[in-house]
Write a structure and sequence with these properties.
heterodimer, A: mainly alpha, disordered N terminus, B: alpha+beta, four-stranded antiparallel sheet, 8 strands, membrane (chain A), endoplasmic reticulum (chain A)
Chain lengths: 101, 167
């Protein structure tokens, strides 16, 4: 159940990068395996079936927000902690901007 | 990637693009095939040879067509469309081609065949030039792929001729 609850939240940044890399790699590998299988067996249908299987497997692994995509969460500062530290002020620069007339 | 829908869209788009590339490579692989087809056509009988009321010659003939086209099939072949055409020269036209018979061969097993048939389509000349005329019978084939480029080629068989007189 805990894994389903974590599906409600977005992936963290490292997870997104990982998901994209896994997706691209798995689709390319599926395509190569499918083509080789079809060519060797002499069956176009086999190539399509293997590729469709590869796409489905890739979808199951990379599209849902699985827990292993959330190993590097970005922890936002707690609001009570943030109040203790004032926001940095933008300092007015005393230097003249050289070229501006 | 940002959300479920975003990842799903990315996956579907990329997978379809890769599918297109796979189909292109599959079509290119057809060029690796070196076919060696063979065919023979015998004209068994000229059934009749008349001049029509409009003035055009018409002939009906019975042919024995045998061919082995199995090497034309690849893993990417959907079917083979073949037809037999009579080709001859007249003073009016440098090349006349009249389609006499055609067939669709759906698989490699059916590609080695023998058929005894009269012409499926009428053989009518543009004029009355056929008496004593020499003609070629050409077997054309179109290799129709499952994906990609269609190849077409033919075998020309020479040495046929019409009778000197109408019958």
């Amino acid at each position: 159940m805990t894994s389903f609850r974590s599906l409600r939240f977005h992936m963290d940044w490292q997870g997104q990068k990982l998901a994209e890399q896994i997706m691209q790699m798995m689709l390319l590998v599926s395509a190569v395996i499918a083509f080789v299988a079809g060519y060797v067996l002499g069956s176009f249908q086999m190539m399509m079936i293997v590729y469709a299987g590869g796409v489905t497997l890739t979808a199951l692994i990379t599209v849902p927000n699985w827990p292993f995509f959330n190993h590097h969460p970005l922890n936002w500062l707690d609001p009570s902690e943030a109040e203790k530290h004032p926001k940095p002020q933008v300092t007015v620069s005393s230097k003249k901007k050289g070229t501006k007339k | 990637m940002h959300s479920f829908g975003y990842r799903l869209n990315g996956l579907l788009t990329f997978s379809v693009t890769i599918l297109a590339i796979m189909c292109a490579i599959t079509s290119l692989s057809d060029n690796l095939n070196t076919p060696s087809p063979s065919a023979e056509i015998q004209v068994m009988n000229i059934n009749w040879f008349q001049k029509q009321p409009q003035g055009n010659d018409e002939v009906s003939l019975t042919m024995n067509i045998s061919a082995d086209l199995q090497t034309l099939f690849t893993w990417n072949t959907k079917q083979l469309f073949i037809f037999v055409a009579a080709e001859y020269k007249t003073p009016k036209n440098s090349l006349n081609q009249v389609s006499l018979w055609d067939a669709i061969i759906p698989s490699k097993e059916h590609a080695k065949f023998w058929i005894h048939t009269s012409n499926k389509y009428r053989f009518v000349d543009q004029g009355n030039n056929l008496r004593g005329k020499e003609f070629n019978l050409t077997l054309h084939w179109h290799v129709m792929p499952k994906t990609g480029k269609m190849f077409a080629d033919k075998i020309v068989l020479t040495g046929y001729s019409f009778p000197e007189e109408y019958r």
